[in-house]
Each structure stands twice: as structure tokens, then as C-alpha cells.
Write a structure and sequence with these properties.
By secondary structure, the protein is an alpha/beta fold. It contains 23 helices and 14 strands. 55% of the residues lie in helices and 12% in strands.
Length: 587
Amino acid sequence: MKRLSVTKILVLTVVALIAVAPMIAPAFYVTLLNYIGLYSLVALGLVLLTGVAGQTSFGQAAFVGLGAYTTAVLTTQYGWSPWLTLIVALAITLTVGYLLGLITLSMGGHYLPLATIAWGMSLYFLMGTIEQFGGFTGITGIPPVSLFGFSLERESHFYYFIWIVVLAALWAVANLLDSRPGRAIRALKQGTTMVEAFGVHPGRTKTAVFVIAAVLACLSGWLYAHLQRFVNPTPFGINQGIEYLFMAVIGGAVSVWGAVLGATFVTLLKTWLQDLLPKIIGEAGQFEIIVFGILLVLILQYARDGLMPFLQRFVPVTKRVLPAAGDRLQHRPMPAANEPVLSVAAARKTFGGLVAVGDVTFNVDAREIVGLIGPNGAGKSTCFNLISGALAATSGSIKFMGHELIGQPASAISKLGLARTFQHVKLVATMTVVENVALGAYLRGSKGIIASALRLNKEDETAALAEAMRQLQRVGLAEHAHDAASSLPLGKQRIVEIARALASDPILLLLDEPAAGLRFAEKQQLASLIKTLKGEGVTVLLVEHDMDFVMGVVDRLVVLNFGQKLAQGLPEAVQADPAVREAYLGA
């Protein structure tokens, strides 16, 4: 008989409490729990959008209003069924959310939250000024929802409907985050360069997350309208949008259940302060707002990641059961030995008047290990970035397997069979080692957001994790599969990056200073791995400063100095070149 983990026991306990609450709690608290459920849906969207994907939004209340007003207008003025208005509300939200996402998510820094404030205020005043929406007085007479012929008029009946929706949303979002597209979403905070290198399109992924958050808010608004049977613009203003963000942050912006905890904590705290403080201090002033603000600051001071991550420290961690390492994914055909793989012709990159790479030309053939060396500032990493698409070349030509790379985004280049590591390690700290490596197999899976949310991706996910375990065994880090990536020393993090790149099944592997931070024995293991990869048909281009390591592993060398190609050839010939010795190895 399978033993339940502590986490599952806690979840089942919470679900049981939700189920019995209307039977044991006063009517007032049933009402509060209804609102907590509605707030949890919006906060859950913000966990995805802000906590996981790193996109701050203050305008989610406007999407709540969009769902509420759509059903209010269509049911009261046109006699539509509430269920039909739900479809219309979701369709409108999908369209508006997509368009707003395209516009606002292209902004960076402080412009994104400012933009969400702007459109949040705009939609709020739009609801209040259109005569058909009842102005700021609002719309009354919204009909109740009927389910299988049973009218959900009483709050206690609607309570179960709300919480079934909330629990279903929590289940779907948890499934999504623990999947192929979910790993891509969780990696967005690391920056676009890394995720693009493995075939993820950051713009599309961010827009998809924005739309999901908007849909959850719209669903909350639709439920709110049929719970209250009345709507006006007041609950959909910017102040409520800020409060939703507070709920997500206080609960734990990277935790699915943090959305529920944050909504519960903020709602109950406000209610209790409004009841208790007037009795203690008196009716004059709104001291509950001041005390509320002070308490939130104190919580964020001592539980900076939110309440849920703080509480999870006291719950034993249950390691997920991983599939055995296996080779279940299809492999791309490798080119024959000596077949041209990479051709760099007069590649040039300038930053204003600075020439970082100046008309560099070299070739890499299949099943060859080529080293790109030079002193600091020689342009090696810039050259890597031009090849991988992280930077756009100013001029020249870079061809990979016959395809011109200049002008192509990194996500498109990776599909051709090019993978890379980074000079400065780019792992997702909040993900385990095996999840980081599985991210490398992103393009080798096919299940999207909807299939993943509905748990229709089991075969896809098992294959990706089996491949990740295979690569970890290959590089000798299988025992660290369950460890947080950030807990490993720098040298092992670099090896994890190599495993992640190998999970993409590359034709050409770009290694940017792979031996940095490794001990002597680890360098020997890495050299052996690189030679093994060559034997398996993988072509390798590497940048490295450790000359003993480079000379023992490469077939040819290309030397850069001040962005120019200084020399190329066999390691012994390059090492003996007077110009190279003077510029790099020392005269």
C-alpha cells in the first residue's frame, strides 16, 4: 500500500476543512470564505504571472470587472444564460488579454507595472462611464447560476461551486508548472538569453502566462457577479488590483497554495482589524489601514518569500519518484565526419565605435573539437553569442548546417541542433538539478499548456525526465538529481549546464569556459566526456582559458585578439606561433 506524503496529507486536510466549513462555521464566515475563494483565483494568476514569470501587474482587478460586467450586461439586458455569458466573457478576456499582453510585455523595467496601472484605471473608468453599464451605480438583478437544474441562490450552495472551481484551478496550475511548458515559464526569471537557447520563445510564453492570469481573474469576476447578483465598478479599481498583488506576495508568490494562504490571511486580517480596532481606539480615523500596512511590512521583513515558503521549511520534503534513466526520445541524424557544420565568414559585431568582433572567419567540421582562445576581452564570448543568436551580427555570414543564422532568433537556431553553455552559469535556482536538465529537452517534447494543465502529458513528461536522468548519469551527477541547482558548487553547476545542453540532442555544442571552477580530477572527467561526445558524433566548439585543458582535448585552435583572428591550426602549431605567444601565452 502506498504511503501518503506529508504534503498530500496536508492538502487533503485543507480540502476536508473546505468541505465541512459551511456545516460548522457561522454564516458570516461562509461569506468570507466565498470571497477568499474568489480572491484566490486572482492571486493564483498573479503567482504565475508575477511570482513565477516575473512580470508585475497591478491591473488584474480590471479583468475581474471584465468577467463580472460581461455576464451582468448579457444576463440582465439580453436574457442570456449565465453559462453562455461565461463563454463570451472568457473569449473577450482572451482577446483583450492577448492584445494587452503583446503591448505591455514588450516593455521592461518599471514601464510594465506602470502600463498595467494605466490600463487597469482605463477599464475601471470605462465601466463607470458607459450608460449601458449603469454608470457608478451599477447593475442589479443578475440571475443565479443553475447547475443540473438546481439554482445556486443560497451562499452556502454557491460556496461549494466556488471552491470546486478554485481547487480545479489549483490542480491545473500545479500540473502546468510541473511540466515542459511549466519549466519554460519558471525559467523566464533567469532572463531570455538562457530560455531562448533551448528553443523557448520568451515573448509567446510571457503572453500565454499573461492570458492565463487574465482568464483566472475573469472567472473570478463571473463568479462574483452571480454570487452578489449586483455589480458596480468599485471592486474593480486599482486599489483592489494592488491588494490582489499583496495577496500573492504575502502568501508566497512562487507557491500555488500560497495564493489561497495569501487571500485568506489578507481577508481575515482586514476583517479582524476593522472589527477590533474601533473597539480599542475608537471610531475616529481609519487606523485599521495603518496597522494593516505595518503588519504587512513586518511579515515581508521576516518572511520575505511569503508565508507559504516560510511554513514549508517545517514540512519534510518528499522527493518525487523519477523514471529510470532511459533513451526514449528521438535523436536527430548526425552529419558524417568532416562534413561542414559551422561556417563563420567575416562576422563582425560593433557596439557604437567599438569593434568587439572584427571580420572573423573560421570553420568547424563534423565530429571535430575546436577551441576558441584568446586573452580577456578578445571577443570569444561575443563570437559565441553571434553564433547562438543571443546577439545580432552587424555584418558577415554565419552558416550552420547550410542555414544562414544571421537574422534568426536564438529559439529558431536551437531547433537546428545547436546548444550552448554560458560563461556565467545560468541555472534556475528554484528548480532541482533534474528539472534544469529536463529544460534542455524542451524542443524534444510536444505537449502544450492545455494538455499539461489537464495532465495529458504523462508520456511526454516521463520521457523528458528519463532523458534528464540519462544525461546526469552521463556527466556523473545523478546523485544530485533532487538537489536545488543553487545548492551545488560552481564547478558542478557548470557540469549541470553541459548535461542540460546535451539533453537537447545537439549537433554542435558550444561550451563557454566549461572547465572554470573545476578541480583537476573533474577537468580530467570533463575532457574524457568531450572526447566521448566526439566519438558519438557531436561537434564541439569551446572557449577556455585553461591551456593545459585545451591542448589536451581540441583538434584545432582559433585564436582571437582584440576581436581579430590572430591564428588558427593544430594546437602544437598555434602554441609555437610567436604572435600567439606574445599576445596570449607570453613571449
